[in-house]
Structure to design on (506 residues):
């Protein structure tokens, strides 16, 4: 057997680093693969079972490969509004926002979460940011180049990051840290557990209610043990993280998003608030302005696929003889019970309900542009 | 009946001139949850090493090669409705296709079960 991602090629060429929980994953029977420069757990008992567990109970994901950054210094808000298209000045303490780094042409360099700190968390820094693992060193280089000297960026490489996701995540975390029950979606704050300082946000990458927990790497094993000792919680690998986020309609950087894709084409215009659209003043603004006025050439859409054959990244999308797009993520969706995909499609063919064909191994399979998310979000927006 | 194994993690049962081909338990375990199997049509002919089938797990598609040359006489229709059969019973009910062998000498050099076990243990 052979394939793009099979037994023979899962081995990585570059030396991989170990995450703080490396031994913990292995002890729980994880299959480890190279991802973003680290040995990471792709699955424990199996992707389908882990996916279903997260949708029904609570899954614990180790996302310590991601880059955790803090920003402080005079003019930090102005500096970040130059780098990010989102409203930073209007971001209140303990609030989080989805944003992205754009290049001069408005292409997406990375997508990220940005929050305003408070209560002297992270040594009194003003802003906390979580960026993708595979892009973190490029992001850091880009930001150093574009930040004024007065703004200090700190890469907190000694912080681990856990995500607890699923409808039972709230009750599970509240048994360890009762105060987290008050957090709502996209709120965050400092918490203490057994004397350890944590920064917790109510957010995630599965479409479910849940949390992301920043904790010193030295203490993360203790917390992972305490969480997985709860009846609601099991460790979940990267495989299910990918199928869960695809069902939730959330794009994956390096696949659905890249420097070739603009914010508006990616259908992520919600990350650019009204004031920023009007005032500009951020890198890549000209592209955003132009595409808001004229429309992008193509759009990121969801695709429902007929039959059981999955369409994967790279499969071409057609209307008759013409190629009108390409799949950027695709696979079998366990909670939908059918294959789904995400991809870009030229604007005239991107409306929900449009019938398309996808070419898989020389065969055309029927697909239709579908609304996203494929599985409804269940965020905790109010009490 | 003799069972042979390939380094590509296929098994081949040979009975007379008919060879039944599947993937090994090790292979299904590595692939994880299997959601679709694309099988060859009856009458298709393969040279040894040709792409003969595709197995799709949740995370990836993998090719299955024809381990020997031959003509397809039957594909396992049960896999259309229940691809997970490859996970639950890879080396029996989860077989992929049957070939009429055109050159039995190609079986020489394939591993027997003991040699395959050794091969897998060394991976």
């Amino acid at each position: 057997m052979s394939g793009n991602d099979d037994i023979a090629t899962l081995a990585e060429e570059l030396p991989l680093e170990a995450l703080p929980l490396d031994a913990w994953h292995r002890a729980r029977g994880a299959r480890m693969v190279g991802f973003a420069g680290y040995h990471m757990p792709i699955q424990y008992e199996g992707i389908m079972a882990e996916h279903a567990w997260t949708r029904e109970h609570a899954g614990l994901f180790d996302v310590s490969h991601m880059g955790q950054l803090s920003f402080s210094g005079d003019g930090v808000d102005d500096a970040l509004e130059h780098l990010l298209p989102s409203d930073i000045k209007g971001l209140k303490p303990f609030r989080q926002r989805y944003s992205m780094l754009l290049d001069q042409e408005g292409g997406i360099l990375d997508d990220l979460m940005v929050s305003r700190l408070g209560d002297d968390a992270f040594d009194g820094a003003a802003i906390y940011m979580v960026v993708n693992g595979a892009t973190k060193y490029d992001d850091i280089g880009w930001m150093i180049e574009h930040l004024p000297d007065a703004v200090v960026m700190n890469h907190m490489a000694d912080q681990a990051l856990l995500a607890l996701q699923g409808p039972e995540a709230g009750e599970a975390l509240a048994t360890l840290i009762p105060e987290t029950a008050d957090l709502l979606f996209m709120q965050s704050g400092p918490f203490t557990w057994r004397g350890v300082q944590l920064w917790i946000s109510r957010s995630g990458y599965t479409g479910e209610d849940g949390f992301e927990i920043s904790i010193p790497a030295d203490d993360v094993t203790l917390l992972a043990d305490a969480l997985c000792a709860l009846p609601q919680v099991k460790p979940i690998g990267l495989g299910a993280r990918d199928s869960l986020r695809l069902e939730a309609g959330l794009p994956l950087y390096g696949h659905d998003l890249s420097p070739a894709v603009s914010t508006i084409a990616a259908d992520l215009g919600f990350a650019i608030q009204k004031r920023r659209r009007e005032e500009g003043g951020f890198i890549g603004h000209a592209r955003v302005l132009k595409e808001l006025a004229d429309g992008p050439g193509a759009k990121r859409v969801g695709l429902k696929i007929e039959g059981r054959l999955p369409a994967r990244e790279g499969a071409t999308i057609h209307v008759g003889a013409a190629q009108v797009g390409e799949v950027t993520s695709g696979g079998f969706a366990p909670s939908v019970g059918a294959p789904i995909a995400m991809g870009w499609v030229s604007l005239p063919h991107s409306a929900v309900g449009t019938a398309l064909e996808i070419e898989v191994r020389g065969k055309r399979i029927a697909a239709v542009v579908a609304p996203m998310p494929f599985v409804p979000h269940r965020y905790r927006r109010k009490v | 009946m003799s069972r042979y194994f390939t380094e590509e993690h296929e098994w081949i049962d040979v009975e007379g001139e008919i060879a039944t081909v599947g993937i090994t338990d090790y292979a299904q375990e590595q692939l994880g949850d299997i959601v679709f199997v694309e099988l060859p049509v009856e009458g298709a002919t393969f040279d040894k090493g040709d792409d003969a089938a595709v197995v799709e797990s949740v995370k990836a598609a993998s090719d299955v090669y024809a381990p020997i040359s031959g003509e397809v006489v039957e594909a396992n229709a049960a896999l259309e409705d229940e691809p997970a059969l490859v996970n639950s019973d890879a080396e029996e009910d989860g077989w992929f296709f049957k070939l009429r062998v055109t050159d039995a000498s190609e079986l020489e050099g394939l591993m027997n079960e003991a040699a395959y076990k050794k091969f897998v243990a060394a991976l």
